[in-house]
Amino acid sequence: MNIGSIIESKCTGLKALIYEVKDTEVGVYTLSNVFPENHSDKYHLEIPIEAEFYYLDIRLRSTIEMDKVQFVTTISPVLLEKVLRLDILFKVEGYYELFHHDKNKEFNSKSSMVSYGGRVYDEKEMRSLVDSSLDFWLTAGRYNKQFEKEYAEFLGVRYALLTNSGSSANLLAFSTLTSPKLKDRQIKPGDEVITVAAGFPTTVTPIVQNGAVPVFIDVELGTYNIIVDRIEEAITSKTKAIMIAHTMGNPFNLERVMEIAMKYNLWVIEDNCDALGSTFNDKLTGTHGDIGTSSFYPPHHMTMGEGGAVYTNNALLKSIIESFRDWGRDCWCPSGCDNTCNKRFGWELGSLPYGYDHKYTYSHIGYNLRVTEMQAAIGVEQLKKVPTFTQARKDNFKRLYDGLKDLEEYFILPRATEKSDPSWFGFILTVQDGVKFTKNEIITYLEESRIQTRMLFAGNLTRQPAFSNVNYRISGDLKNTDKIMRDTFLVGVYPGLTEEKIEYVVSKIRSFVLERK
What is the CB-side half-sphere exposure of residue 323 using CA atoms within 13 A? Predict the structure, then answer.
């Protein structure tokens, strides 16, 4: 008798499956021929024995002396693998309950840290992660395919492609627009792209990395998004695209931006990395323009650890995104598949000889920016939680706003763009001119009170060391952007923040301000 053997008790006739063999006894899963109440694929497995079906509950284990049982049959290796996998995943669930379940739940105002962002997860993500590791496929596989399909459905777009980060998603999105396959709409070195300097660098660096010229427009205080009335005056014969982010989850004025883009035949890339779940005119952000991007870094609206996505409704753009992501190759076969086009050795492209292997034919100067299967496995479970996460962010934002709304004498409070419903990334505050404290003083106080703060990312990109030798143009002035650099900070609203933590943040901000009246 070995692991995987079906045995029967000589006394009772009850059947069991051996999972462990010792000197004089065996560890077994009890089998029942009664369909289990509250059947769950997490715990139950159907075991065929001759002409009957029995049911294994992975939670019901015992030991029995070897001389009290008799051998019946052996299950197949395929079925044994399913049993052992189920057992491992059940143990992972127990591990989560012991070592992860209560993390970040208790709050002590004298010692606990109030983070601005972080992971929110349960045993489902851990089970999914381990499940993918047992396949040991490693690169993109079944979970990747599942996530891309479900993410596209969630967003309401035709295509969603995973990549290894939100920054890579932006790089892919912009690089796609440089493809010769776009003919007269191809972005070339020297062409201009409308954007903002108040934001994260990798919204802009793909423009620079591809030899185009960022044209910076100032942003509004309060919404922290592009001043749309200044866009048209910044457009020249060289302008080819608009690439901007929904700042802190607050949508920019998509209605006006899309009108301008249509009028001047411009591409629109929505950097949606901080705004998953936000809507404008009741439509999800990231889905209004030509291409949208997401980030799944831990502080964002869902996480894979690292990871990102690029999405579009345009079939040509989808194929170009995929090419740039996958080494620049012309072939669209997924990993492990060959000859999807049924003419793998029947192409003649470039000056290659006829029949050169299509899997090794390259149509773009691309990258390897693919995601791992383990990341996608986490994402599949995280995606199910996005509606709950979104509501939690909105609720936490409201608690902060309600607790601080009478402090407008001291702060410019955040406000949602008209016609939008933000899924906020953070609660952003700008210190008013003429008050008796500085941004640095209040963030030092908050950090010493164990409340994490962050800036509005780069503040003003044109003042960053990396941009000192970059070819860019400023249209108008960046007065508000400079104020943001000097006077703006944010605290968190992520779903891991309890009501108690939010109240603590409010109390600390209020006490700091009121002591300096």
Answer: 24
pLDDT digits 0-9 by tens, 281-340 = 999 999 999 999 999 999 999 999 999 999 999 999 999 999 999 999 987 777 667 777
| Residue 353 DSSP class | P
Torsional sign, CA 504, 509, 510, 512? positive
DSSP state of 465: G
Buried b (16+ CB within 10 A) or exposed e, 81-95: ebbebbbbbbebbee
What global pTM score does this model have?
Answer: 0.95
Nearest to 123 by CA among 153, 94, 93, 147: 93
Residue 463 · residue 472 · CB < 8 Å: no
| Cβ pair 195, 227 in contact under 8 A | no
Annotated catalytic residue 300 = yes
3-class SS at 236? Answer: coil
DSSP 128-169: HHHHHHHHT--BS-HHHHHHHHHHHHHHT-SEEEEES-HHHH
Q: What is residue 104's predicted lDDT score, i.e. its pLDDT?
A: 63
Determine phi and psi for 49, rounding to 5 degrees. -130, 110
Q: What is the pLDDT of residues 359-415, one digit of tens each?
A: 888 999 999 999 999 999 999 999 999 999 999 999 999 999 999 999 999 999 999
Both structure tokens of 375: 């990341």
Return d(Cα 470, Cα 191) in angstroms, integer.
Answer: 14
Pick the catalytic residue: 44, 246, 288, 300? 300
